Amino acid sequence: MIIFQEVSKTFEDGLDAVSEVNFRIAKGHLAVLIGPSGSGKTTTMKMINRLIEPTSGFIYIDGKNHTKIPAVELRRNIGYVIQEVGLFPHMTIAENISLVPRLRGENPAYSQRRVDDLLSMVDLEPALYRNRYPNQLSGGQQQRVGVIRALAADPPIILMDEPFSALDPISREQLQDELLLLQAKLRKTVVFVTHDMDEALKLADVVVLMRDGKVEQQASVDDILREPASEFVRDFIGAERPGRPADISLAQITIDNPVVIDPNRGLAEALRVMRRRRVDSLLVTNTKRELLGIVTAKDLHRHMGEKSTIEKIMSKDVIKIETDTPVPEVLRIMTSEQVGYLPVVDQNNRLQGLVTRASLVNVIAEEWGES
Ligand SMILES: Nc1ncnc2c1ncn2[C@@H]1O[C@H](COP(=O)(O)OP(=O)(O)OP(=O)(O)O)[C@@H](O)[C@H]1O
Ligand SMILES: [Mg+2]
To answer: Which atom of ligand 1 is nearest to the CA of 43?
Structure first.
């Protein structure tokens, strides 16, 4: 657990880079510090491992006032990844990764094995890479090494200051995915700085949004999206603010012309309709558009080659909703019944349309975009 209590930093020139910041980051959580350039993210982060000393206030690490921990010991227990990677150019990759464990007097054979394990974790073939020098690696590969070097000493806390910002979008996505995988396994307490809201949304257990040296909001990703604490937060997260399902009407998410078939049709005909319309199930309706059942590709497969009709093989107990069902209820039914679609009928069981998971998502996304 990392606790910031009324922490401020005023630089020599009188600039209040960080003022009276309070937040806490639970053990094993990944916290993202985000905010505009100059808002104090790096300063906040560097105060954790005492690369910068606070002017006032307290920082506690696992309950211990961190000024009481000698800076050298503190840094050996906190992994640090910076944007410029900072690998030592005259050391091999293996030497870079095992530096802190060796400084701690760890058994060299053990370090060697661990280096190989870590390299494999981020998809760098140990035999190929362990003896190379940093300048013999691509930028993205160096950043991978930077990340595993921070993990090598197995520190409980890792600080990452825009570690992926110099990468192309694809490598960046890959490293984000790898970080999530590693984090699921290792459960470190991670403080991750970024400018990029998408990156924050993907990685964060908790978001700390900074502005002018102050914390504007600390919340889970979901809460920050749903309930931005201020106009500034709303603007910062941009157009992605969600509408609530309650504000959306069922009509908005209903597809008007679902693919239907008459109960007297044959199986081969049904298969043909499915293929042409690219669906894997058909609603069965009579000439009055009353909903009688549903037939799926699986049903057809089971009766393949038989001379039969849809009526004989369809399933009659269809989970359906009426036109006045509130959208949150629709969501609940979809989840509890584990269905991807729900036919919508009127009071007389006449088919009015179909709600699918995809149509629901599309409309909600559109609503978010509008606000
Ligand atoms: N050593 C220093 N001496 C004086 N002022 C500093 C020092 N380091 C940072 N600052 C100032 O403190 C403020 C916060 O800087 P900081 O590096 O923490 O911002 P940041 O949020 O990390 O920005 P960026 O997103 O651009 O990295 C800035 O106005 C910066 O100019
Ligand atoms: Mg910074």
So the answer is: 18
